[in-house]
Amino acid sequence: MSQVLLQREEDLFVWLSDKQRVMLVCGSSAKKLLLYALLEEKLKEKNGEFVIFSDFKPNPEYDSVVTGVRLFREKECKAILAIGGGSAMDVAKCIKLYADAPGDGAEGSFLKESSEGKTPFLAIPTTAGSGSEATRFAVIYYQGVKQSITSDSILPDAVYLDGSLLLSLPEYQRKSTMLDALSHAVESYWSVHATDESKNYAAEAIHTILEEMSAYLGNTSEGNAQMLRAAYTAGKAINITKTTAGHAMAYKVTGLFGTAHGHATALINRALYRRMVELLETGNCKVSDRTTTENVMRALSEIAVLLGCNSAREGADKFDKICRDLGLEVPKVSEKELDLLVSSVNPERLQNHPMLFSYEDLKGIYRLAFQD
Ligand SMILES: [Fe+2]
Fold this sequence. Notes:
The protein is an alpha/beta fold. Helices cover 53% and strands 12% of the residues.
């Protein structure tokens, strides 16, 4: 399914003009945005209105999605607009998917049904990180269990990138979301599913992230706009390849220590990159049967070049330095917690990774990730 990137505010108004009743999925602060007031005014001019849905939390629950679907149907909404970070996007994607599904969603029924999700859907991200606006993936939790939803029909039909929405991002969120985008690009590049197209997206994202990092961290207009673009491009890369061990190993870090998602993925990836280089250099590694040792070495070396380095080893050092220079706190982890982390890794999610790891390998990577 194709997606349109709306370039100007006028394009946004045109997109909204024939939609009439639009479900706006957003956090509670979205109503304070100047963009919200502008969009509401434009909708009113066409006798349209927003039906606001904000009844969800980070790591959204299935029940929140069901509430959203019921509201969508009751108000006879014609389109969905999501303004927010990864959670708002995930909720909006699932409402789109289930709005046309049979039943009312009771007892997890939407999770068992397939649906075409034909409702028009526009995504406006307010963080430069998740890239969710560019992917066919969503994550929700049903009775405490993570549900990974993958469907071409949840890819937003249109995306609008507005750097001014990043102006009030808190510092930790600003840094960690950028690291999420960097992790997406790096993991996509070394994924066993990488293609020429995905590598081009990943390379473009890495280049822009490095180029614009200081302007973005300094909260300049240009830096914000460019980082938003980089996160979107990294999202397009993982839409093709999915993420790899960096993400599979990071989820429990967030669960255990409250480390923000992007920060957690970067801690893992700095260790993963280094350990992969070491294992390849010593010839002591097993690679996935979907790739070859030469391909993995080439990918790690090419990532290093994208990071401005001459060798994979230097590339791993550079990734580590990027994390360190941000001055983020690294959690202290006990031996028992290391074991807990290793046992939490879902082996299915490691299948996109180019290298195979033993229990001890994974434990070593976690140990390295948390070194000061
Ligand atoms: Fe991520």
